[in-house]
Amino acid sequence: MQLSLEKLNKFFKLESERGFDNRAVVGGLDKILPAWEAEARADGLPEEIIQTVLPCLRSYPELDPPARAASLRELWRSLQAKSAAQSNLNSLPDLNLAELPPSAARGEIEPSFPPRNGGDSHPPRAERSQALVNDIPHPRHRPQPHGRILPDGPVGLNAPLTVLSGIGPRHAQTLSQLGLHTLGDLLYFFPRRYDDFSQLKTISRLQYGEEVTVIGSVQSIVNRPLRGGQLQVTEAIITDGSGSLRVTWFNQPWLVNRLRPNTPVSLSGKIEQYLGRLVMNHPDWEQLDQELLHTNRIVPVYPLTANLNQRLVRRILHDTVSFWAPRIADFLPETIRREAGLIDLPNALRQIHFPDSVGQLEAARHRLAFDEIFLLQLGVLRQKLAWQSAAAQTFETPQEWLDAQINRLPFPLTEAQRRALAAVRQDLASGSPMNRLLQGDVGSGKTVIAALAIAMVARHGVQSALMAPTGILAEQHYRNLLTILAQGEGAPLQPAEIRLLVGDTPEAEKEDIRQGLAHGSIKLVVGTHALLEDPVTFQRLQLVVVDEQHRFGVSQRARLRSKGDNPHLLVMTATPIPRSLALTVYGDLDLTVMDEMPPGRQMVKTYVLSPRERERAYRLINAQISEGHQVFIIYPLVEQSTGDGELAAVEEYQRLQREVFPGYRVGLLHGRLKPEEKDEVMARFRDGHYHLLVSTSVVEVGVDVPNATVMLVEGANRFGLAQLHQFRGRVGRGNAQSFCLLIPDTEDAVENERLMVMAETNDGFVLAERDMQQRGPGEFLGTRQSGFSELRLANLTDVRLIEKAREQAQALFARDPGLQDPENQNLLSTLERFWSDGKGDIS
């Protein structure tokens, strides 16, 4: 047995002989750690064993004797198992410790936390009895919140906060405003930032403006009244042998009794200047006989709410983390931790709250962020595996027949379209349900691929459905599909076999369509949410196409798909998806990117104008309308709400019609209109009744208007680059040169620089990546929020971490597809809790 482990054995036995009073070593058992860690490394002990010992002994002083006995026993058993697994280590003997008191044998291990402000280290008997683990509710009695990564561990993790000494019902109610209800909530309540006060300086070396920690002793301290006694200022002189520093606090006269002369103290704060001398105003302080939670270290700063301060929150977190973190079972199998280079979960939780160094903090962040991404990956990959394992009808398509259908098109397919078509054809012939996301800019030809997929399925006499988010877009798809699939020689469908079902379809026609779908005479139905209505049934629905899929929720897609027997699914979006999101949020889908535009389309010229250049935009609009073209004008708001000069659609619509373009017809479109009113406005604009359409962002997913050549976006700084790219895609769909004009609210140089990216590139992927970096992933998630809105540390732009987690998740499923191995049971239950709000279908 290595010398370092022999010493542990000796210390543990001595502790047992003394009744676990933490006096086997002067100052407490945790005081051996610095020397022991160095000796362990010199002995060549594996890092895993060292990291098992350190957190356990650090928290040892916080425990009462029964808990200390249990802790040392468990630690030694763990060391025996780990040493047995290491070929270069000698096996460890059994550790015979004294028997536990009867109360501990019954499981009544009390979570003993240090006192708040000195005094007796044990709470009153009534409080102690409340804290007994036997009295803590079992986890199954309280539903876990969605996104929780907490492993099962001790039942106490689900205990209410009132089991903590010093937290009564009033404090518990206050903490609940931060979403903190249980001890487990506290463990995952991470700091929002950190102040590094770990670099101590002598008083003689202090400089104005720096934030530092100073250690010294109180030379003098007095209270002085201010403003005729309305305020009190406490002034102290602190000295450290190199110099003295004047320190002041306001309205804290009780400090005179706490910080008496010659009291050693640690102060942290900002160095300021008064009458030519350096001073420190209202610093954090602690007496040096207390553990320094607020000074002389990397200090966590937590989110707060009313009636809470940092000192109280830090103390509560320190108590919770010290006692509970070492007791948590790590849900990640050791193989994954080793291959991914991750620290264990108890150490990560301790270091994320009270880091010993910047390096330890980064290691903790990396581990906890990996956990979140890894569980996301497991969820989407499990969904994908479940979908792939299902059986679906096989649709073989002869090459000659497919070539004939392609030749019927009035234009040649781009290479990107041919690649997408080949992938869809392979999916339909695979025998497993297709689950493919087709992503491409507006105008890249996604609808043609969907039409050919429908044709391949219709050749076998079965049915397809296409769902669009708006009636006007559904009508546009209906007309396009009617042209592609039911006109000309060799058309795969007859016009009567394709129908449109939207909200304002007459009831008699709806009934006719419902009967045709039920009997199988209708092979393709195009519609909106009306397709989801219960009366709509299909004879043999085998293909579901969803356009602008982020506009539909999980349950809506699942409901449409449930109307068939494992139908194939093709979803389409014009939103460019950054690579990191393609690996996570859409990781369950097979992704096909159409990154090529049909030949002949002109690039939309994009310009960023300042607000004072608005007249230039109006002159261009006048010129374009006089040539017979049409114009979109987008505003970020429907109506003005604050009166601070922000532009809004309703007010600007009236001004433009009255003052700027009185000779032209101006239409108004916004989200407060009823669906049928929106469709009517868009239809009138498409048919040329309006010269200009004033709109909010609802036009982002809209009808094809080839005659529109100008897109003017007011308040452009309020939109993301990806959304602006969507607006730009509304123009340039005809043969004429088109323009996109972006006008921010202000002359802000930073905002204008961000918008200039729009003028530099038409590549939606470049813009999407830039948008992710600047604004985060929210804009890309749409209704696909299950599991993704709960991320606390993970960054969905961190491609390297995402790829690492995905690689580990794929390897795990390759070894154990059902997560049935014993070492994966804790991980499986954690995964179920993390996705507890999911509906089992996130495509």
Brief rundown of the structure:
This protein is of the alpha/beta class. It is built from 29 helices and 21 strands.
Describe the structure.
With 843 residues, the protein is α/β, with parallel strands linked by helices. Among the domains are: 3-109, no CATH class; 199-296, OB fold (Dihydrolipoamide Acetyltransferase, E2P); 399-430 and 445-573, 3-Layer(aba) Sandwich (Rossmann fold), CATH 3.40.50.300; 605-761, Rossmann fold, CATH 3.40.50. It is built from 29 helices and 21 strands. The strands form 4 sheets. A 7-stranded parallel sheet has the order 11-12-10-13-14-9-15, sandwiched between helices. A 6-stranded parallel sheet has the order 16-21-20-17-19-18, with helices on both faces. Strand 13, helix 19 (554-561) and strand 14 (568-573) form a beta-alpha-beta unit. The radius of gyration is 34 Å and the shape is globular. Mean pLDDT is 81; it is low at 100-148 and 838-843.
Portion of residues in beta strands equals: 5-15%
Shape: globular
The CATH homologous superfamily of the domain at 399-430 and 445-573 is named P-loop containing nucleotide triphosphate hydrolases
Q: Which strand order does the major sheet show?
A: 11-12-10-13-14-9-15
Q: Determine the mean pLDDT.
A: 81
Total of DSSP H or I helical runs spanning 4+ residues: 29
The CATH topology name of the domain at 399-430 and 445-573 reads: Rossmann fold
Quaternary status: single chain
